[in-house]
Amino acid sequence: MDRVRQPKTPEKLIPVLSDVDTKKVLDLCKGETFANLRDQAIIRLLCNTGARLSEVGDLALDDIDLATESVRFRGKGAKDRRVRFGPKTARALSRYLRARASHRGNELPFLWLADRGGRRLAPNGIKIMLRRLGEKAGIDRLHARRWRHSYAHEWKRADADTGYLMLVLGWTSDAMPRHYGRSAVAERALETQQRLGIGERV
């Protein structure tokens, strides 16, 4: 058995989401109902920060700071980190928080509340909500991690510092930046090749 080669397990590549895909999902959440405002805020936070489903799903009210447009995530290994979000995400969160203030269960410490029953919306509930919206938008297997891969892909497209990416996404292993966004590595390679124009200056 020492001479038998171990079979190679093919790596499962998670496709990144385009801005068009994200817009399709957000368009399905347009409206002024409590669920619409909540789902818009969740989706914008996921795609704007690249956070894990558990990190977004386990947020408390005190973790959101609209004054600094930042959020405190509790990552793996009980490691907290503060991440900034953009104006559109801030606006979506502000609208949701106003609706939450008069919603049943507003005394609970959890950020996300269920549409009915005055109870918390747990990460598994967010997972089900995303899958349902993905089916309506025609996006196969929509889940939070696809935005995490997309975030890493866009960061790499901008040739931004990998160390900073690790801090923002809460990674400690150097292997993670290589894994995330790999499904679009050929796209980044071709963009880099075109930008460099090697051989065109002769």
SSE order and pairing:
Blueprint: H1 19-28, H2 34-49, H3 53-57, E1 64-65, E2 70-74, E3 80-84, H4 87-100, H5 123-137, H6 144-157, H7 162-169, H8 175-179, H9 185-196
Helix pairs in contact: 1-2, 1-5, 2-4, 2-6
Mean pLDDT: 91
Shape annotation: globular
The value of Rg in angstroms is 19 Å
- Report the sheet-strand fraction: 5-15%
Q: Characterize the largest beta sheet: strand count, sense, and whether it forms a barrel.
A: 3 strands, antiparallel
> What low-confidence regions span 5 or more consecutive residues with pLDDT below 50?
none
Q: Return the string of H and E elements.
A: HHHEEEHHHHHH
Report the helical percentage: 40-55%
The helix tally amounts to 9
Structural class: mainly alpha
The separation of the N and C termini measures 56 Å
User: How many E strands?
Assistant: 3
Query: How do the strands line up in the largest sheet?
Result: 1-2-3
Entry summary:
The protein is mainly alpha-helical and 202 residues long. It has helices at 19-28, 34-49, 53-57, 87-100, 123-137, 144-157, 162-169, 175-179, 185-196, and strands at residues 64-65, 70-74, 80-84.
Architecture overview:
The chain is mainly alpha-helical and 202 residues long. It is built from 9 helices and 3 strands, in the order αααβββαααααα. The chain has helices at residues 19-28, 34-49, 53-57, 87-100, 123-137, 144-157, 162-169, 175-179, 185-196, and strands at residues 64-65, 70-74, 80-84. It has a 3-stranded antiparallel sheet, with no helix packed on it. β2 and β3 form a beta hairpin. The chain is globular. The chain starts with 18 loop residues before the first helix and ends in a 6-residue tail after the last helix.
